[in-house]
Design a protein that fits this description.
heterodimer; A: mainly beta; 1 helix; 32 strands; globular; B: mainly alpha; Cytochrome Bc1 Complex, Chain D, domain 2
Chain lengths: 404, 109
C-alpha cells in the first residue's frame, strides 16, 4: 500500500523541514509502492564514438537513459545475465563493464586486457568469457564479481606467439568455443568440472578464421575463413570426428572483390533447413543445405554482406553491407531464396536486431545518428530515435538464447 | 560543347595553379576524418590503437615509412584483411589522410 502522508509543520525551521522531507522520501522509497521497470523488453544500443550506451525499451520504442564512461566501444558487444538484470558490455579497449539495467548505472567495471573483440556468458550464467587480441587469448571472469577465474593464453607455436582470438561463443555444458585468427585453430574450453578448464584444440582448421557462430541449439560451431574460401564446421555432439571443411573453394574462378568491413558471423541465419552465410570478397549470400552441408544456392546481393540475420519466425533474412554499399538493407525470402525487398535506411547501416518475436527490427544508421525501427511486415518506419553514432543493438531477450 | 569548354577551363586552371588539385574542401575533410575514425577504426580501433589491423597512433606511425604506408593504403596488403582504397579515394585524399596520421591530428574536432 502506498500513500504519502501530508505532514503539517508549524515550526518553520528550515532544517527540520528538510529532515521530515528526507524521512518521507526514505519511507516511500522502501515501501512496496516503488515502481519496478521490468527488463524483458529492454535493449542496449552502443554509441561507439562517445563510449556510451543507450538503454531502450521496445514496447513503446523509447530511450530510457544513457550510461557513459565505457571506454572505446568500436566493435563492442553485449551479453545478458539470465535474470535480465545485468548487461555485460565488451569494449575494444579491454573494458568489461557490468551494467545494472534497473538503475541504469555501472555496477562493476574492469580493464581486463589491452585490446578485445567480444565475449560470452556460460550456460549456467556464472562465468563471463572475453576474447582478446592483446594479449591474445581468452580470460574468464565471475559474472557476479568480475574477478578473474581463468586465463587461457592462445599460444600456438614454440616461440610462444599468441594469436588474436575471434568467434567466442558459449556452448551447452559449460563450454566456451573460440577460434585463433593467426593460428587457424578452434579451441573448446570445458568448464563443467572445475574452473580449470579442459581444453581441446583442433589444429589446421583453415587460414584466418575471422568470426564464428553456433547453431541455435548449440550443436554446430561454424567458423568463417578469411584467408581461403570455405568454412570450418565442428559438431559439438561428436567432437572426436574433428573439424570438417564445408563449401570448400566457393569462390573458385571468381575475382575477389575488396572487403571494406569484415563480415560478422554472430548473426548467421539458420532458417528453413538452410544456413545463410555471407561470402567473403563476393557480393553474394551463400545458402547451405543443413542436411548435407553442401551449397544449395548463391544469392546475388547489393554488396559485401556484413550481417545476415534471420527474423525470429525464420521466414525472412535481412542483410546489410560493407562500405561503400552500407546505406542499403536487402531482405531475402527463405522459401523462394530470392531478394524480395530493398530499403535504404541511410548512411552507414551498422547493425539490425529483431524484437523478441520479430514484429519489428531495430536498425542503427551510424552516420545519420539515428536508430530506425521498421515494421517487418510492411517495412514502414514506426519510430526514429536520435543517438550518437549508433552501432550494435542487443535486446535483453538474448539472455535466454544459446550462443548469444 | 559546354562540357568541352568547362574541361578546357579546368585544364587552364590546373596549369596556372598546380597546387589547386591537392586542396581538399573543408566538407570533404570532415568526411575523410569520419571515414578514418569510423571505417578505418573498425579494424584499427576508434582511437587507432589497433585491432585486427595494427595501431596507427602517432607513435606507431614514427616507425612506418611514408612510401610503404602510401602503397598499403592504395593497394591493400595481400594476405591480410587490408583492402585497397585507390578505387574509393583519390591520390590527394590518401596523401591528406597520411598527413593527418603522421601529425596525429585525427582527434581534432
Amino acid at each position: 500500500m502506498c500513500y504519502i502522508k501530508v505532514v503539517t509543520v508549524k515550526n518553520r525551521n528550515y532544517k527540520k523541514w528538510l529532515t521530515i522531507l528526507a524521512v518521507a522520501v526514505l519511507a516511500t522509497g522502501t515501501s512496496s509502492c516503488v515502481t519496478v521497470r521490468a527488463t524483458g523488453d529492454l535493449g542496449i544500443v552502443i554509441e561507439r564514438a562517445t563510449g556510451s550506451v543507450q538503454i531502450i525499451e521496445t514496447t513503446n520504442r523509447t530511450v530510457l537513459g544513457r550510461v557513459d564512461k565505457l571506454g572505446d566501444l568500436s566493435h563492442a558487444s553485449v551479453v545478458y545475465s539470465r535474470d535480465q538484470k545485468y548487461a555485460y558490455v565488451f569494449g575494444r579497449d579491454g573494458g568489461l563493464t557490468k551494467i545494472d539495467l534497473t538503475s541504469r548505472s555501472i555496477d562493476k567495471r574492469v580493464l581486463q586486457a589491452g585490446n578485445s573483440i567480444g565475449g560470452a556468458i556460460s550456460t549456467n550464467g556464472r562465468l563471463i568469457a572475453v576474447s582478446n587480441y592483446k594479449p591474445g587469448g581468452v580470460r574468464v571472469f565471475s559474472a557476479e564479481t568480475l574477478e578473474l577465474v581463468a586465463d587461457i593464453p592462445a599460444t600456438y607455436d614454440k616461440q610462444g606467439r599468441r594469436s588474436k582470438v575471434v568467434g567466442l561463443v558459449d556452448a551447452p555444458g559449460q563450454k566456451f568455443v573460440f577460434s585463433l585468427f593467426d593460428a587457424g585453430e578452434i579451441w573448446v574450453a570445458d568448464f563443467s568440472k572445475s574452473n580449470q578448464p579442459d581444453i581441446t584444440k583442433f589444429r589446421q582448421i583453415g587460414n584466418q578464421p575471422y568470426d564464428a557462430l553456433i547453431s541455435p541449439e548449440g550443436r554446430y560451431y561454424i567458423a568463417g575463413l578469411f584467408g581461403e574460401d570455405g568454412l570450418a564446421l565442428l559438431d559439438l555432439w561428436h567432437q572426436d570426428a574433428g573439424v570438417k571443411r564445408i563449401l570448400n573453394g566457393y569462390g573458385r574462378g571468381k575475382k575477389k572483390l575488396p572487403v571494406y568491413k569484415m563480415p560478422h558471423l554472430e548473426g548467421w541465419a539458420i532458417a528453413g533447413g538452410y544456413t545463410f552465410v555471407p561470402a567473403v570478397g563476393l557480393h553474394e549470400v551463400l545458402v547451405i543445405n543443413r542436411s548435407n552441408w553442401r551449397e544449395k544456392k548463391r544469392i546475388a546481393v547489393y554488396g559485401q554482406p556484413v550481417f545476415v540475420m534471420a527474423s525470429p519466425d525464420q521466414r525472412k533474412v535481412w542483410v546489410n553491407f560493407a562500405f561503400p554499399n552500407n546505406d542499403t538493407v536487402q531482405v531475402i525470402d527463405t522459401e523462394t531464396l530470392k531478394v524480395v525487398k530493398q530499403i535504404k535506411p541511410g548512411k552507414a547501416v551498422m547493425h539490425m536486431e529483431f524484437t523478441p518475436r520479430g514484429e519489428e527490427v531495430w536498425v542503427s544508421v551510424r552516420d545519420e545518428n539515428l536508430v530506425k525501427v521498421y515494421d517487418t511486415s510492411t517495412y514502414n518506419v514506426t519510430a526514429l530515435l536520435k543517438m550518437k553514432k549508433p552501432s550494435g543493438i542487443f535486446m535483453s531477450a538474448r539472455a535466454h538464447r544459446i550462443g548469444l | 560543347m559546354r562540357k568541352a569548354r568547362r574541361a578546357w577551363l579546368l585544364f587552364c586552371i590546373s596549369i596556372l595553379t598546380p597546387t589547386a588539385m591537392a586542396e581538399i574542401t573543408v566538407s570533404r575533410q570532415v568526411e575523410l576524418k569520419n571515414l578514418l575514425e569510423q571505417d578505418c577504426g573498425s579494424c584499427h580501433g576508434l582511437t587507432l590503437k589497433g585491432g585486427l589491423g595494427p595501431a596507427l597512433t602517432i607513435d606507431a606511425m614514427k616507425k612506418k615509412p611514408r612510401a610503404v604506408m602510401l602503397a598499403t593504403i592504395s593497394d591493400g596488403r595481400p594476405g591480410t584483411p587490408m583492402p585497397p582504397w585507390k578505387n574509393i579515394l583519390t591520390a590527394e585524399e590518401i596523401a591528406w589522410l597520411l598527413d593527418v596520421l603522421y601529425k596525429g591530428s585525427y582527434r581534432e574536432k
